[in-house]
Write a structure and sequence with these properties.
Layout: E1 3-4, H1 13-32, H2 42-63, H3 68-90, H4 96-129, E2 134-135
Antiparallel strand pairs: 1-2
């Protein structure tokens, strides 16, 4: 017996937004919530970028391209808010605002690119399967 592959329902926008906020917060907490000296180490920024990349891809896949805004806003806010809170509390010059602007620009551009590329890959995969894509259950005979 064959079963037609029904597309899975996309996660609601609020779920994607919440998960994206968690991704941004985890990226900040794991890599940017502490420093070894005056500046962040290369490995800290790289680790944060990897978490942002993988987490953004995950939330885009869960949303199936329907709530890209939630990924962009959630990851950006989830990382920028705690970073700003920490930076503002330790900066006496007010230059943390320059860092915030650069952080927001980098996060917005990177998450937009990630969501666009992920959405394009998902559409390609869906199209390549075609409308008559059939999946077989494990253990079923193909005859």
């Amino acid at each position: 017996m064959t079963q037609v592959n029904q597309p899975r329902a996309a996660a609601p926008g609020t779920v994607v937004l919440g998960l994206s906020l968690v991704v941004g917060l985890v990226a900040w907490a794991a890599f940017l919530s502490y420093r070894f000296g005056a500046a962040y180490s290369v490995w800290q920024v790289s680790g944060c970028a990897i978490i942002v990349l993988l987490g953004s891809i995950l939330t885009c896949v869960l949303a199936q391209g329907r709530h890209a805004w939630a990924t962009v806003v959630g990851v950006t806010a989830g990382l920028a808010v705690p970073w700003t809170w920490e930076a503002a509390s330790t900066d006496e010059t007010g230059l943390y605002l320059v860092g915030l602007i650069l952080l927001l620009a980098g996060l917005l551009v990177s998450t937009i690119v990630i969501t666009l590329v992920t959405d394009a890959v998902l559409r390609f995969v869906r199209r390549s399967r075609g409308p008559d894509h059939v999946e077989r259950r494990a253990g079923e005979d193909s005859t």
